[in-house]
Amino acid sequence: MLLAPEILFGQLLMGAILLGGIYSLVTIGLALIFGVMRILNIAHGEFIIFGAYATYWISTLLSLDPLLTILLTIPVAALLGYVVNTLLIRGLTKSFDAPIVSSFGLLLIMQASMLIAWSGDPRSIVTPLTAESISLGPVVVPIIRLLAFTVSIIALTLLHFFLTRTSIGRAIRAISQDSESASTLGIPVQRLQTFTFILSICLAGVSGGLVAMLLSFQPTFGPEFLLKSFVVLALSGVGNIPAVIAGGLVLGIGESYGSFFLGAGLRNVVAYAMLILLLLVRPTGLFGRRGVREV
Amino acid sequence: MEYHRDIEILRNISIHVERNSVTALIGPNGAGKSTLMKTVAGILKPKRGEIILDDVRLDGMLPEERVWHGLSIVLQRRSVFPQMTVRENLLLGAWKIRRDPKLLDDTMDEVLDIFPDLEPRLDDRASSLSGGQQRMLEIARALMTKPKILLLDEPSAGLSPIMVKQVYRHIDTLRRLSMTIFLVDQNIQQCFSVADYVYVLELGEVKGGGRKSELASSLSDLIRGWLYLEQGGVKG
Amino acid sequence: MKTRIIIAAVLTIVLLAIPSLAAGNNFIITLAFLFTIYTTLALAWNIVGGFTGQLNLGHAAFFGVGAYILALSTGAGFHPYLGVAAGGAAAVGLALLMSPLMRLRGDYFAIGTLSLAEAIKVAILNIHAYGIRVTPYGGSGRVENYYLASGLLIAAAIVTYLILRSKLKLALVSIRENEILANASGVNPLKYKMIALALSGVFTGLAGGIYGYNLLYVPAEHVYSIEWTIIPLFMVLIGGRGTLTGPLIGSIIYLGIYYLLQFTITEISLLAFGLVVVLIVKFMPQGLIETLFIKTLGVRRSSIL
Fold first, then answer.
1. Top CATH class, B22-81+147-232
2. How would residue A278 be classed by pLDDT, with cut points 50, 70 and 90?
3. Number of folded domains in chain C?
4. Please, where are the H alpha helices in chain A?
5. B74-85: per-residue pLDDT in tens?
6. What is this model's ipTM?
7. Which residues of A, range 258-277, sit inside 8 Å of C by Cβ?
8. Domain segments of chain B: what residues?
């Protein structure tokens, strides 16, 4: 029976949770940049795909285990983040949408570069674990998904502790709430914003590496991840990490159950519909704080 | 607020703030007091001029750099970090001294001695505090930066008369602790009573200043004029 | 004043003379057709993105809807001109449907429109995976369609000019500069944003209809593709927002780049466009027209057409 409880509340739910955890990691970089710098990085999806390629190439060329390779992807992403920040983000005109348009140009540059460098052929990372699953009771879980989920949760937890328990993390949160005030306390606003930007790119890169292990990807997949991140962001607001995790879970549930009942082709439409509804109902997210700083 | 490039708000400003005392800048609505404060703090950039603290030229430095040289400002607007606890707000003020845990603890104790009302609220969200308490938190937080000079931009803004008295009682405490304070406020009475030195700002220009005791008589006529305006006119 | 009329007249004559100049060269006519469509879209996008300062990243939806309704209308037996008009009307309908989104602040509006356009595309793809055929009305060919498109472009240019000279422009620009202040001054932001969006939609929808008819085939992936947002945005960005000459110059520059890339859109051209966007935002955020005119010729901003 297709609608048996094991399916509905077991398999689908497990799939939703695993998906949600990964979506949360995918989103967190975008959330950080938006919260701390008030910039909507439209090229966010491209950085994720870049991370996927970086992990793919490093693990292929050095014959390393992909999970270990992700650790190597981090410095590569950091370098890219540093370059992009220096050339594009710093000294950006304060006009009303210079950052968005600029990041849009960046999207074109990155996507085109990846297409030129690595062609449009789909790739994915295959490991001995790729086809393996384990059974948790009546539910079958692909190991690779479980691993990706675990890595995501660990990364998000570390980030959460960093933001709440360290002085730098606290300063970053302060900047996201009131950057002018923060500067009057001696907090080096620009330096920490740069740091946050690079951190976000690294997080995007790591999530890309995980994506590479889970599905086949192409240079043109960036915008899809961007839009998924938007959905999670709209759900969670830029308040805090637990909210982003919750948002990711909601998207995971929406997508899993939506595509089960409506068909796989409409899977993304569920995401978009959620996004539009959320934007209309609560532009600052269901869990996040009210009223983004205006003017 | 944006200041139009083409209108000169401040002209010919020359103010000397004496160490270990309270210097007040008084003036009617729209004289440019907040503009001056923000310029000294580095939030606004002047076309010309120098800002010197202990032989160090501060002009050209970002606000955060000025803090390292000992200058701290409490902004006129609400500036607590609303989503963070009182303790976190204070810890953020201690950014400059964060590497020295002992100094940080001692400073925290000192600050809480001056503002004992904050102690029971340490783990509460800053947004849950009343207007007056938030103002105290802002001053306490600024004190955590161990400033050589503390700038107070309209500390009474938006507060009820009782709260204003409380805030000024604390400012007086700071004065007795020999803090160097530069202060502007709409509330001339309070401002005046706590000051050692007074400058007058009218329409963007400094119209005189010096020791309060010496200026008392000439000032009182000027102030009476403003108070008259204040009672009949628009409250700042 | 006289120079402006002369320039406008010359441009119009050139525009209308192209088919004769091309003398049967289909490639040139098709290229010219494509360009009038792009320029019309640029002028339309400019009304919302330039005058009103709202970044509409879902512009392609208007275009796609116009083409789609045109195809459906001709399939139902209507005359193509009626179909095109229906396409325009449908686009206006979509604009009205988008009205809740207009309440959103800048960034969120951009996201909302982008996702809406993507959602519509995916939804339509699910119904008509391979597109719909357009039933041709005997007798109209490329040249007629070109004149139709040119006529639309001229109309869009005239409307933009009229906006520039009207109170509408003041209202829209005031919303762009400071919406809160505009509201306090008595300008209802929602109402004017809707007017701008409807105007933008009608021209884009009509263009979509004409395009679809010319193509005789309306594939969802193509007519709802983000390129119909990107290219007009690009033209307005380069040329300058909130002016008439801006999008026009931007269009000519785009044509130039396109020519240099030998009329093919490849990854390299994407790269080139990305670089241009980034460089323009960094060094000439006001767009070519304003930066050139103001910085070098000392022309006042308000007098730029």
1. alpha beta
2. confident
3. 1
4. 5, 12-37, 44-61, 66-84, 98-118, 143-165, 167-177, 179-184, 189-214, 222-236, 241-262, 267-281
5. 999 999 999 899
6. 0.85
7. 265-266, 268-269, 272-273, 275-276
8. 22-81+147-232
